[in-house]
Design a protein that fits this description.
Number of strands: 4
Distance between the termini: 71 Å
Strand order of the largest sheet: 1-2
Number of helices: 2
Strand content: 5-15%
Shape: elongated
Length: 93
């Protein structure tokens, strides 16, 4: 549905027939770590998240799982097949 509160005229997943279904009845503006994310939209002079109505709550305990501009850490561990590892260990006896 189209938003009728903070982002008037924009498509919003939180709008219902009775109004905004988010706690408080309106979306909260995006926080500083949200800058650069593809999911943010500008409405007037404020920036809002399209995926979550309270972006500060997503960043409270670490990285936001919706953030498109933050890359996760990857571990480059080589997985060994246990059968092959036991055969290699037995070869050197």
């Amino acid at each position: 549905m189209l938003c009728t509160t903070t982002r008037e005229g924009m498509d919003c997943a939180f709008m219902s027939v009775t109004g905004c279904s988010f706690n408080g009845g309106t979306c909260h503006p995006a926080v500083e770590p949200c800058k650069g994310c593809d999911r943010t939209v500008n409405a007037g002079d404020m920036m809002y998240c399209q995926s979550y109505p309270d972006p500060a709550a997503k960043w409270r305990y670490g990285k936001c799982n919706f953030a498109t501009h933050v890359k996760g850490e990857t571990l480059n561990e080589v997985k060994l097949n246990p059968l092959k590892a036991s055969k290699r260990a037995g070869r050197h006896r």
